[in-house]
Amino acid sequence: MPHLHHGALESLGSVLLTLIIVFTALVYLRGWLHLHSVSLTVIEIWRAVGFWLGLFLIWVAVASPVAVFDHELLTVHMVQHLLLMTLAPPLIWLGAPAIPLARGLPRHFVQAVVDPMFQWPPSKRFGRVLAQPCFCWLAAAAALVGWHVPPAFALGLQSGAWHMVEHASFLATGLLFWWPVVQASTNGSKPPDLAIILYLFLATLPCDILSGFLVFCDRVVYPVYFSSPRPFGLYALEDQQCAGALMWICVTVVYLVAGAILTTRLLSARISDEVELVQSSLRADMVPVKDPPSLEIL
């Protein structure tokens, strides 16, 4: 089944997305500079760099010249998927974007539009639902599995509008998935919950199943790539195996690093609690005991 190359709609979408990314980066820079002039410890420079790097990875995935090859190679499609769901979202959240973006926008716009929108009770309830780890996990798994079902995959390649919807769902569910993880890793007031580490471990299962299927399957899962011009000399089955291996390795490494960071913080917090308990016991044992009053024999 032949596929269609990027049409006018996707080209226009790439231009608009580039403008949005540049505008967002400049607003964040303006807000960060304002915060930095007030206090050096509000948002560290590495967080700001992480945010800008996350925006850059989003641009590479969907608006750069590399993105055109996703119609030719499944491996490039997998790179897009990994950038949008696995790499860019944690960098965005590590940049703590809420405060810099709010400070970077005009004050009257924030007071008249942004604040009322987020203070609206339905928005608060909707936000609480979106922040639930169970919902975040299921949304990411549904986007991953749903868009890799062959009919949905072919629809995304043949329709410019559905292609943009696919990318948007990858990014949105990626942001949802990484929100509980980044919150647990950056919250210094309490150690991360063991459930978040299990959350990460379970998230590898859909990725491992899909990537393993692509690697070890002896047939081409997406016939749409049969008609591709085979860039870089890769045949369709070789391209499929390369895409599956790339997903397997990248997801495993990223989730392993995130899990190791959370586990280290959890163990450090428990060790600190035990040390504090021992020190408290020692201090209690070292309190001098007063001698009982002596009795005089009359």
Helices and strands, with pairings:
Layout: H1 8-38, H2 45-62, H3 74-94, H4 98-104, H5 107-119, H6 121-130, H7 133-147, H8 150-158, H9 160-186, H10 194-216, H11 236-285
Helix pairs in contact: 1-2, 1-4, 1-9, 2-3, 3-9, 3-11, 7-9, 7-10, 8-9, 10-11
Summarize the structure.
By secondary structure, the chain is mainly alpha-helical. The chain is built from 11 helices and no strands.
Describe this structure in words.
The structure is a single chain. By secondary structure, the chain is mostly helical. It has one domain. The protein is built from 11 helices and no strands. It has helices spanning 8-38, 45-62, 74-94, 98-104, 107-119, 121-130, 133-147, 150-158, 160-186, 194-216, 236-285. Helix 1 (8-38) crosses helix 4 (98-104) and helix 7 (133-147) runs antiparallel to helix 9 (160-186). The longest helix is centred in the last third of the chain and has 50 residues, at 236-285. 30% of the residues are buried.
Question: Total number of helical segments?
Answer: 11
Overall mean pLDDT: 83
- Number of E-state strands: 0
Report the major sheet: none
What share of residues are in beta strands? under 5%
Rg (C-alpha, Å): 26 Å
Give the terminus-to-terminus CA distance.
115 Å
Could you say how many structural domains there are in total?
Answer: 1
User: What is the string of SSEs from the N terminus onward?
Assistant: HHHHHHHHHHH
Helix/strand-derived category reads: mainly alpha
Helix content: over 70%
Shape: globular
Low-confidence spans = 1-6
